[in-house]
Structure formats: structure tokens, C-alpha cells
Amino acid sequence: MASDKTQRLRGIDCRHSWHPFTQMQAWFEENAPIIERGEGVWLWDTDGKKYLDGISSLWVTVHGHCRPEINAAISAQLTKLEHSTMLGLSSVPATELAAKLVELVPDGLTRVFYSDSGSTAVEIGLKMAYQFCRQNGRVKKGKFIHFKNSYHGDTIGSVSLGGIELFHMLYGPLLFETIAVPYPYCYRCPWDRVPDSCDLYCANKLEETLADNRDEVIAVVVEPLVQGAAGMLTAPPGHLRKIRQLCDKYGVFLVCDEVATGWGRTGKLWACENEGVSPDILCTAKGLTGGYLPLAATITTEEIFEGFLGSHEDKRTLFHGHTYTGNPLACAAALANIELFEKDKTLENAKARAKQLEEGLREIAHLPHVGDIRRKGLMTGIELVSDKETKEPYDYSARTGHKVILEARKRGAILRPLGDVIVLMPPLAISESEMSELLGITKESIEAVT
Predict the structure, then answer these.
(1) Does residue 289 surpass a pLDDT of 90?
(2) What's the sign of the alpha-carbon dihedral 431, 52, 337, 105?
(3) 33-63+345-449: which CATH number, 3.30.465.10, 3.90.1150.10, 3.90.79.10, 3.30.565.10?
(4) Residue spans of alpha helices (H) in 297-431
(5) What is this structure's pTM?
């Protein structure tokens, strides 16, 4: 029985809140938990029930909730400066963070432009690349290549690069024209190729498209190694490296959207590092502040930056900015987050837990309605099917994935479905025993529903 406090808050929520990616008519009937506090990888609701945060609070929490070091960094910054614009000014945390980020990103990236979300980080990258071409003798270039099933955010520019029909189809009349090419979906390969022996056949489609449109294409935009919102679709080894090679061959920029894949999720700090790739533009957000405050960065090369330099009369300025660009509190949190990576040996723990996750998923893979399991580092998607032999999906109206996460909630874990793909993406700080518990709850919840 929900407490009076919970019932009061649910009443307010149902009367006034509008939740993202949520059919609110169904929401009214669900009595979802109202989270009141967190510690480590755990969350507690207003009734005192404890949940393991199996999705890092939507892929952002890195070192756990309420880390004293990040709390202290924000508190210390609060006594000095809560906010100051970067239009015509700078601040100590924003300046120091820019230098730190340049140390951490792949070679060749030297300039940091702040914003506040993954969507805006990508949108800024598009505008940078487009404007660079317009004012540096590449005026015929006006199109971007992206991958089918991609998700780069919800602003109009990032939606124009989106390839998930359910999310993006309705907004078609608002969007600018882009070129979509296939992304690897080895479990449901449209060419019936066999994984690991197809010689990256899907990359051939990208080369064909670049060859046909080389004079028009500005950049290729990709979620490196893992398409997150598409259902954790993992690219085969060498795919990202091949994209980099093709971009160089045809003289187009490579934009890597590391919003979900960055900050250790794939085993390296950046997914690009797994294949030794340096993009021309890297977009980051989510884990940048350890899950504390909204902050994003679009990080680019000196070549692109210098393409905007000129006299005032040249009007080559990047006319883009946000009110809270480089917010000092968020930048202080990000600096503390980065320090914890070294102090806690976060990547080492993440690699150990990824190995444990790989082993634990083998048992789940044998379940009769688990069609495919895709994993890179601590990013995992478990695709549920109604028929394992034919790979027949469940009917959309059955909401099978959603039922699984409700079962997990009963058992004390917060999971998130992408359709009928169950996502596991715990904080990098998760312990061995906590990972075992998460795997056990996931297995039991799938069995209970299917």
C-alpha cells in the first residue's frame, strides 16, 4: 500500500506532469515509483523501497549516486559562482574543463564548444561542419549521411539525422534532407550475410553512397560501435575504422556521437578508441558530469576552428550559443567526475564487470524467448522474440518488453525497454555482487513474462 506521501505526489504528477517517451494514458494506471534519494547504484522511492539502477538513470550515472567528491565540488563552486555567461566572458571551471577534455579525447581534437544536452551537442556539430564548408570554398556540399536506425537527439537538426521511424516519421515535413545508409544489424541482416565472415558488406553501401555523392556530402554522422536507442545494435569489429577510412578517401568529415557510448560505457573512455579512430567532431554529454547536471560538449579539430577565424566584417563567427553554456556548477561536477576515473580506477572495474556481464548473459541467452543478446562493454541489449527459430517478434501491442521491466521493478531493479529489447547499462561503479543481483533479476523477469 502506497504511503500518503506517495499518493499525494502521484496525484500531482498525474494532474500536471508530461513524461518523455511516455503514453500518458497508460502512465495514469501504472503507479510508477517516485524516486526520493540515491546512493551508489541504488535508488529509493517515497515508500522506502530500494531499486538497483540498472540503466544508470538513462545512461548518465557513472560513479554512483550522491558521490561525496562530486557533491563537494559542486558545493565548493556554489560558494564562488553559480553561473556566468560565456558570451564575452569565461569562467574558471569552464576553462579548466576545456583543457582537461582536450587531454582526454582522441588525437587531433583541440577545441571545445559547450551546450547542455546530447541533442544540442550534435546540432552544433552539424552547424559547425555546414558553416565551415560554406565559408571555406566547399559551397556545393550541403548534405549529411547518417545511418538507418540512428538516434542523435530530439531537436530538429538531430531528428533530421534520425532513423527510427516510430520516433521521427511524424516530423518529416519539418526536417532537412539527409542521406541514410544501412547500419549493421547482424541478427536481422537484410542481406542474409553471416556475421564475422561478410567482409563488412554493409560498409560497401556507405562507399557506394559516398562515391555517388562525394561533391555534396559534408559529413558522415555515426554512433560509434553501438546504436543505443535502436536496440543496442553493435557493429562488427573494423566497421568504425572503415567509416573513418572512407571519410578520408572521399574528403568528408566524420562526426562521432559519443553521447551514449562515451565515458567508459564500451570499455574505453571513448568508443572511438576501441578502433583507434579520431573523428573530426566528437559530441559528448550524458556521463560528462557523472550524471549530476546537464552539460554537453562538441569537440572539434583546429582545422575546423580556424575555418571560422576572420575579421569582424567577414561575419565568419559561429552564431550559436545557449544561456547556460559552460555553466560553472556543471563544469565543476565534470572536473570531479574526471578525477574519480583515476582515483577509483573506474575503467578497470568496468572491464571486470563487463566480463562478469558477458558470462552471466550466457545463461539468459538460453531462455526460449531470448532471440539475441548484443553487448559492448557495459552496454547490453536483450532482444525478445515470440519464436526463437524464426526470429518472429512479439506483436507491438503486447508490450512484452514493458511487462518485463515492470516485473523487474517488483524484484527491485530499474530497467528500460527499447520496444522488446531489454537494456542493461548499469553505473560503471557497480560491484560484483550487485551485477550478480542485476543479472538474476533480469533473468527472472524475462522468465515471468515470456
Answers:
(1) yes
(2) positive
(3) 3.90.1150.10
(4) 302-306, 328-343, 346-365, 400-411
(5) 0.96
